[in-house]
Every structure is written in structure tokens, then in C-alpha cells.
Write a structure and sequence with these properties.
Chain B: This is ThuA-like domain-containing protein. With 210 residues, chain A is of the alpha/beta class. Chain A is built from 5 helices and 10 strands, in the order βαββααβββββββαα. In chain A, a hairpin with a 7-residue loop joins strand 9 and strand 10. The radius of gyration of chain B is 16 Å and the shape is globular. Classes of the chains: A alpha/beta (210), B alpha/beta (210).
């Protein structure tokens, strides 16, 4: 039972993986450009850090699909253009509003349609409420975990985080989000992004590293 | 000779797109994907712009190419936090421990053409929020000229140094300076002044020690 992380050599990947706060929460880190055949085989779950070069990720696409095909759990964070290389992922652009929180009392639109999902035993609901980068449109079989309400611009199915067991008709599980916590945590600039990652890693500790 | 080459990391929030499409500055700039750096003849450029999303493990692997460029009199501008020192004059970033708003106030330590006429308050504050400009420092080497500092601790957020191999190195411990293109205040001046400073190819006011 172990968790690997795939990172892209950016300062925020280095800071998040190696600095004291989250040190030891990943059993192994792989530098995406060097990811090789068989590297992911022994891990129960693999987290792909946000903001890795999408070109590099697409070049390694076969390795990730092979991992899913074996029944692995892949957790893919934001700004990785996951819709260009992962099964079932659809995404539309939405201008990012970094300033929503300046208007006190504003509802940014986040909703938790499945609060009984296991991840919310560890991830505080308030830790998902920050700016986001576009909307995902979960396919049939996926469980939406964080959505944007239609009246707040989310459309019929705009989603920030979902869980897709049996993705692509196989044994694999794909969890995907548009949130980019490695970047913000590793830049020392957005406490809520750090809280999100802390909750997510509490869940991965409990679920994949027992 | 072209004024600058910018290494594109396929990420949002880097200012690349704004700069590419600017008629005056965009016409003084080439943009190539980061991972194609190895195939580029840097001799065609006066300056090399490296932003916060760069894969620094890759840059470290290209160290000798970067040093050759400096040796030929080139100028490197790096924005971001140093995680993998890819030049001898770079050292790992240090965040201001437990910073508060008072620690984030930008102050001018010495005049520099890139910052001429730029009001430090326009760097400190954005929509009433402090911290965008920087929250720490890439520790400068001996002989560097510190340009701007943060807070009472005078953390050196910007410095220029004459690298041992030759050329010029300008370092900003924050988001890409070229993302201020549409700042709407005096901070905008940094972008054209950066290009002019690169084109001029001389040290700012007086000599910088080696």
C-alpha cells in the first residue's frame, strides 16, 4: 500500500514534496520527463501533481493508461490539460476569478453533491472553495464531488473534482480536479490551497498507505 | 540580433500570452517551448527570459548551455523561486518565515533601469492585497546589487549580479515580471524597461563586483 507522486521539476513541486509540511506523505516521487516503463506498477495510487508540462504528460500517456488498466488509482490535479490525455475527461475554459473572496458574503458557487463520499471524512468542505481553472464535465459512471451551481455559472454539470471508478470500462479509478494546490502551497501564497492538499493527503494516507 | 527569447512552459498565470501578443514588445521576442532549449542557438539573442513555471531540473541539465550564453555576453532574467540552482550565482529560495503584511512591503534598495519610475506601492499592493510581488528571497551571492527588498527584514526580492562566467543575471523572487504588462499602473513600466535594459547590454549605474 503506497502512494507515488509524479512531479515536473518546478519549484512548487520541490517545495510541496520536500518541505517539512508534507514531507513523508509520498512514498516515492517520479520526475515526469524520466517516467519509465514499470515505474508505477507497485503503487496503490499515483498522484499527478498540478502544472506539469502537458506535452510531457501526453508523451507519458501510455504509461498512465497502462497503470489504470492494471487497476490502479490515478489522482490528477489541475492545469495538466487532462482532457487531452485521460479517458472520459472533458473540460471547458472559464475565466478564472481570483478575486471572488474580496466581496464578503459572495457565494462563489461551490456545491458538494455527494457529502458522504469517503474523501470528505478527511477533506474539509470549506477547503475546496477557492479560485478554479475551468470546469470538468463528468462522464456517466463518475461521481461528482465538487460542482459549481448552475446559477453561479457552472452550467448543467460544471465540476471541479470527481471520482470515476471503473474508468474507461476497466478496473482503474480516476480522480481528477481543476484545483492546483501544489502551485499555491509551494508558492507560500494561498492557505486554502494548502488546506485542500492537507485534506487530500489525509485521505490518501488513510486509503492507500495503511 | 533579437532582444529576447522566452521559454514557454505551457502554463497560465505566467504572462507569456500577454507578452507574445503585444505589438511592440512581442516583435522583439521569440518564444520556444522550454524543452526545445537544447536545439536553440542562443547566440541569436541578447536576453533569455526564464519564468516561474520552468522545470528547473531541466534547466540544471542545460547549465553548460546557459553558461556559454552568459560567457558570450548574454543576459539571463529569472523570475521564480530557486529550487535547483541551475547557475552558480543561484541559491535555494527562502520564504519569510510566518510573514505578515508588514513583511511584504516592497522598498527600493538601489536604482535600476528596469524599475525606473515604478512606485514600490504599485508592487506591494494589488487590489488592496499584498504579497503578489514576493514573499521571500533567492539569497543573492556576494557582489550582487540588491534592487528591491521586502519588509523590515529587508529580504532581497530582486538582485542583479555579474556571473563569474560573464554576462548579466537579473533575479526576481516572485511571479514573472512580464506578467505586469497590463497592471494598469506604474508597475507596467517594468516590462518595456526590461526589454530596453536587455537591449542596451550595460550594467546599471556603475560597476557590479564579481
Amino acid at each position: 500500500m503506497s502512494l507515488a507522486v509524479v512531479e515536473g521539476g518546478c519549484y512548487y513541486h520541490h517545495e510541496t514534496i520536500h518541505a517539512e509540511r508534507f514531507r513523508g506523505r509520498f512514498d516515492r516521487a517520479f520526475y515526469a520527463p524520466d517516467l519509465a516503463e514499470g515505474d508505477l506498477d507497485d503503487f496503490t495510487a499515483v498522484m499527478v501533481a498540478d502544472r506539469i508540462s502537458p506535452t510531457v504528460l501526453r508523451a507519458k500517456r501510455r504509461l498512465f493508461l497502462h497503470y489504470l488498466n492494471q487497476g490502479g488509482t490515478l489522482i490528477v490535479l489541475g492545469e495538466n490539460q487532462a482532457h487531452t490525455w485521460l479517458p472520459g475527461v472533458e473540460w471547458t475554459f472559464k475565466p478564472t476569478n481570483f478575486w471572488w473572496w474580496l466581496d464578503k458574503g459572495t457565494d462563489p458557487g461551490h456545491r458538494i453533491p455527494n457529502p458522504d463520499h469517503d474523501v470528505f471524512r478527511y477533506l474539509p468542505q470549506r477547503a475546496v472553495v477557492w479560485h478554479f481553472h475551468g470546469l470538468l464535465h463528468p462522464p456517466a459512471g463518475a461521481v461528482p464531488l465538487v460542482t459549481i451551481a448552475p446559477e453561479m455559472g457552472g452550467g448543467p454539470d460544471g465540476t471541479l473534482l470527481y471520482d470515476h471508478p471503473g474508468v474507461g470500462g476497466g478496473k482503474g479509478r480516476l480522480i481528477v480536479t481543476t484545483l492546483d494546490p501544489f502551485y499555491h502551497n509551494g508558492s507560500h501564497f494561498m492557505p486554502m490551497a494548502t488546506a485542500f492538499l492537507a485534506g487530500l493527503l489525509d485521505w490518501t494516507d488513510a486509503t492507500f498507505r495503511r | 540580433m533579437i532582444d529576447a527569447l522566452l521559454l514557454d512552459c505551457e502554463q497560465t498565470e505566467g504572462g507569456v500570452n500577454l507578452l507574445m501578443k503585444s505589438v511592440d514588445l512581442g516583435s522583439r521576442l521569440d518564444v520556444v517551448p522550454l524543452y526545445e532549449l537544447g536545439d536553440v542557438d542562443l547566440g541569436a539573442y541578447r536576453g533569455l527570459l526564464i519564468g516561474l513555471h520552468a522545470d528547473q531540473r531541466y534547466l540544471l541539465a542545460r547549465k553548460s548551455q546557459l553558461e556559454t550564453f552568459l560567457q558570450g555576453g548574454g543576459t539571463i532574467v529569472f523570475c521564480g523561486h530557486v529550487a535547483y540552482p541551475f547557475l552558480d550565482e543561484l541559491a535555494p529560495y527562502q520564504a519569510i518565515p510566518g510573514y505578515t503584511v508588514d513583511d511584504l512591503e516592497v522598498a527600493r534598495a538601489s536604482d535600476h533601469p528596469v524599475w525606473a519610475g515604478v512606485d514600490p506601492r504599485h508592487l506591494t499592493w494589488r487590489r488592496g492585497v499584498a504579497g503578489f510581488y514576493g514573499r521571500g528571497a533567492n539569497p543573492p551571492p556576494a557582489g550582487a546589487r540588491v534592487i528591491n527588498t521586502l519588509g523590515r527584514g529587508r529580504y532581497p526580492v530582486d538582485f542583479e549580479v555579474a556571473p563569474g562566467v560573464g554576462g548579466r543575471l537579473l533575479v526576481h523572487a516572485g511571479a514573472d515580471l512580464w506578467s505586469y504588462t497590463d497592471a494598469g499602473n506604474s508597475a507596467e513600466r517594468m516590462v518595456p524597461q526590461l526589454f530596453d535594459w536587455i537591449a542596451k547590454g550595460e550594467f546599471a549605474k556603475g560597476e557590479i563586483g564579481r
